[in-house]
Design brief:
The complex is a heterodimer of chains A (299) and B (541). In chain A, 66% of the residues lie in helices and 4% in strands. Chain A is mainly alpha-helical and 299 residues long. Chain A has a domain of 204 residues: MetI-like fold (Orthogonal Bundle), CATH 1.10.3720.10. Chain B has 541 residues and is α/β, with parallel strands linked by helices. In chain B, 37% of the residues lie in helices and 24% in strands. In chain B, the strands form five sheets. In chain B, strands 6-7-8-3-9-10 form a six-stranded mixed sheet, with helices on both faces. A six-stranded mixed sheet of chain B has the order 16-17-18-13-19-20, sandwiched between helices. In chain B, strands 2-1-4-5 form a four-stranded antiparallel sheet, covered by helices on one side. In chain B, helix 4 runs parallel beside helix 7 and helix 14 crosses helix 15. The chains are: A mainly alpha (299), B alpha/beta (541).
């Protein structure tokens, strides 16, 4: 048979980038990431700079504003201004940073913790019962409620929000990893490794762990999307990131009172939030189709 | 001359562009007459299933029929519209599949699944349909059909499920029955019953049967005519006696020669040092639940066996007999419940995993499925050197040894750089054997090691196993359900049923004078009795 001498890894990569959902979702997500990274260079102002004269202006409003040195400079409020006269456009662009940091940090931490626990639970029968009962307990607590508890126990801030969402996401990762391990440990090649005398930790890392990578990448994207939303909800409720830091949830929270008169305060951050979550979910769907054979479309 | 039920005329089906050959089947022609069983026999990839799918109009979308016709009582099914095909399926042609568990809907009662055929194609009332379902279930010899009609598939055994499938297929008296490896997933005793049933149905109803199989034993058992296929082409076809006794083509001869004979050759008793010995080995599955008593299954009960260096001990039995359980206990892939496993004098039955590690190298396994026994993400070389490196051999030394062993099993040394998916099933099984030899084991366990292979490849791998046993003076534990294979390679045999050893002795004695009823049942059920394979042609006794 003439099969190209390619490693399975490279074949998967090729298939992955041929997928439309991966391309579209990935491109949008990448643009939003770049937006967050290069926020200062995208025609933004200091997102916390208040201007009492220019409160509640509609999108496109132009005004002369004094900068910190006292010089008058022209400013265009592309997305209008909020009740304190802050530039909504700048806040939305800077807000991407918070959302992406929360999303990435939560996904990384939840997977790091969940992967370790899941491998142990799946492979060692003794640990399985204990770990999974604890996880079942954690699953029973609503994420938002838990977040409120964590934030009120410690101070409100980025770390508290991240910790709260991670705690809620870990059990799902553990369940996923455990299910993969349970099926892989029955594979003859794992049994062959056992008869080859491979010690359990090495066996887990060498033969079992690689099988969890694909489902975890997929799960990771969904965690990112869900964390971004939960962070926005917490901020919107006023129990997340402090209001002086621009986040999409904060912007919407502040725009809530004047929503009927000035909908742009909620519209723009809302659209960007929706677009971000949509793109990340699309990316996740595409990755699942190409990486996770159980869902892969037939050739 | 009566009209043929099925005439396949110059059928050519194209494969997708990226495939290893251009056509799935190429220019094939054959006929099935009324009341005739035509066996299409060939190895995997020969195009026999594609032929059946083409007739049923079930070809996957990627496969395009480009030429020819499949005439069902004169009507071309290859180019028929979907609506017409739907009418024909069930009424004029029906199909039964290999896996009776997945072919039946697990959440519908079996009676309803038979009645569904009638509901779609007839105007019978519900009570008539039920009566008809019970009637056909009786016809396929299902016990207590009046009650079984309301059972769900999981409540039936594999053989009973296949009978339900046959009942579904035959309830509307189709002219043509296509059977695609219908007995491959069944135990040998069940297989014999199903074959008898197919033959009886065909005789009584005059159905034409297109029977697809890879097993020459089955061919010898039921075929009227035989079509031999290879690489999508028909090698030769003719009446059963002619093909079996006087095959013209080299490929048919080779296939027939590869089928192991049911008659074990005389073998000298092996006098070697005992490599492994089990005493009263017991494995119980299941445990007491938290609340009240749980269910317990005795998978192996008081198994005593010993294998000497240079000897092959076969364990035969049907699925669920406990033969694999014993092997896996000896390899300590599962922990025995009680009993002793003495490996070169040390009892390893209750040893902890840590203490066990030094003994791991003494016992190696070759598994059934060559596609799953190697980590697909690692090169063959990486898989080969894993075990010796665990035991402290430096990598270069292990690689050199791997290269040498690859030559021993008939592959070239540069195969080490490649990935498992680049090899065929037979080649992978050779690699697995080489991998097992990397740590100089004393005992090699072959757990159905040739069962997933095509018959010609099977013969080669069997020979390789026998050669390396002799070369390295290995003790070999050979687990199989295939009595033909067991006859050819085993010095001694153990017959297991429901976790209990019912008979043991030298292979020749067990085959010529079986002592236990179950052994006799197994031997009688093996398909192709009275036809002697193993040479260029078969002799019908």
């Amino acid at each position: 048979m003439a099969i190209a001498a390619q490693s399975p890894f490279r074949q998967t990569l090729r298939r992955m980038f041929g997928n439309t959902s991966v391309r579209v979702g990935g491109t949008i997500a990448l643009l939003i990431l770049l937006m967050g990274l290069f926020a200062p260079f995208l025609g933004t102002r200091d997102p916390s700079d208040i201007s009492p004269r220019n409160r509640n202006k509609t999108p496109g409003y132009e005004a002369m504003v004094r900068d910190y040195d006292g010089n008058k400079i022209p400013v265009v409020y592309r997305m209008g201004s909020d009740t304190l006269g802050r530039d909504v456009y700048s806040r939305v662009v800077y807000g991407a940073r918070t959302s992406l940091i929360v999303g990435a940090a939560v996904a990384f931490l939840a997977i790091a913790v969940g992967l370790g626990l899941g491998l142990v639970a799946g492979y060692f029968r003794v640990a399985d019962g204990i770990i999974m009962r604890v996880m079942d307990g954690m699953m029973a607590i609503p994420a938002i409620l838990l977040a409120i508890a964590v934030v009120s126990l410690f101070s409100a801030g980025l770390t508290s929000v991240i910790v709260a969402i991670v705690v809620a996401e870990v059990p799902r990762v553990v369940r996923l990893v455990r299910s993969v391990v349970l099926s892989i440990r029955e594979e003859p090649y794992v049994e062959a490794a056992i008869t080859a005398g491979t010690p359990a930790p090495l066996l887990l890392v060498r033969h079992v762990l690689p099988n969890t990578v694909a489902p975890l990448i997929v799960q990771g994207t969904f965690i990112v999307a869900s964390a971004i939303i939960v962070e926005a909800i917490l901020s919107f409720l006023g129990i997340g990131i402090p209001p002086e830091i621009p986040t999409w949830g904060n912007i919407m929270a502040e725009g809530r009172q004047v929503f009927q008169l000035f909908p742009h305060n909620i519209l723009y951050p809302g659209v960007v939030l929706a677009l971000t979550v949509l793109s990340v979910n699309m990316l996740g769907d595409g990755l699942r189709d190409t990486l996770d054979p159980r869902f892969a479309k037939r050739v | 001359m009566t009209e043929n039920v099925l005439e396949v005329r110059n059928l050519t089906v194209e494969l997708p562009a990226a495939s290893d050959r251009k056509h799935a089947v190429e220019d094939i022609s054959f006929t099935v007459g009324p009341g005739e069983i035509v066996c299409v026999v060939g190895e995997s990839g020969s195009g026999k299933s594609v032929t059946a799918q083409a007739v049923m109009g079930l070809l996957p979308r990627e496969l395009k029929p480009v030429a020819g016709a499949t005439l069902l009582e004169g009507e071309d099914t290859l180019h028929a519209p979907v609506s017409r095909l739907r009418q024909l399926r069930g009424t004029k042609m029906a199909m039964i599949f290999q896996e009776p568990m997945t072919a039946l809907n697990p959440v519908a009662r079996v009676g309803d699944q038979i009645a569904e055929m009638l509901e779609i194609h007839t105007t019978h009332s519900a009570s008539e349909r039920r009566a008809r379902a019970i009637e056909i279930m009786k016809a396929v010899h299902l016990p207590d059909a009046d009650r079984m009609v309301d059972s769900y598939p999981h409540q039936l055994s594999g053989g009973q499920r296949q009978r339900i499938m046959i009942a579904c297929a035959l309830v509307l008296d189709p002219a043509l029955l296509i059977a695609d490896e219908p007995t491959t997933a069944l135990d040998v005793t069940t297989q014999a019953q199903i074959l008898t049933l197919v033959k009886e149905m065909q005789e009584r109803r005059g159905t034409g049967v297109l029977f697809i199989t890879h097993d020459f034993g089955v061919v010898a058992e039921i075929a009227d005519r035989v079509v031999v296929m290879q690489h999508g082409k028909i090698v030769e076809q003719g009446p059963r006696e002619q093909i079996l006794q006087n095959p013209q083509e080299d490929y048919s001869k080779m296939l027939m020669a590869s089928v192991p004979s049911m008659h074990p050759p005389e073998r000298m008793p092996v006098e070697g040092k005992t490599a492994v010995k089990t005493t009263n080995l017991v494995k119980k599955y299941g445990s007491k639940g938290w609340f009240g008593a749980g269910r317990e299954v005795l998978a192996a009960s008081d198994v005593n066996l010993h294998v000497a260096r240079g000897e092959t001990l076969g364990i035969v039995g049907e699925s669920g007999s406990g033969k694999s359980t014993v092997a896996r206990c000896i390899a300590r892939l599962i922990d025995p419940t009680s009993g002793e496993i003495s490996l070169h004098g040390t009892d390893i039955a209750t040893m902890s995993q840590g203490n066990l590690r030094p003994h791991r190298s003494k016992v190696q396994i070759v598994f059934q499925d060559p596609y799953r026994s190697m980590n697909p993400r690692r090169t063959v070389g990486q898989s080969m050197v894993e075990a010796p490196m665990n035991f402290g051999t430096p990598k270069e030394e292990a690689m050199a040894m791997a290269r040498e062993l690859m030559e021993t099993v008939g592959l070239s040394g540069d195969a080490l750089e490649r990935y498992p998916h680049q090899f065929s099933g037979g080649q992978r099984q050779r690699i697995c054997i080489a991998r097992a030899l990397m740590v100089n084991p004393e005992l090699l366990i072959a757990d159905e090691a040739v069962s997933a292979l095509d018959v010609s490849v099977q013969a080669q791998v069997l020979k390789l196993l026998d050669d390396i046993r002799a070369k390295y003076n290995l003790a070999m534990l050979f687990i199989t359900h295939d009595l033909r294979v067991a006859a050819q390679i085993c010095d001694r045999l153990i017959v297991m049923q429901n976790g209990v050893v019912v008979e043991q002795g030298p292979t020749h004695d067990v085959y010529s004078a079986p002592q236990h009823d179950y052994t006799r049942l197994l031997l009688d059920a093996a398909p192709g009795q009275g036809v002697e394979f193993g040479s260029g042609s078969a002799t019908v006794a």
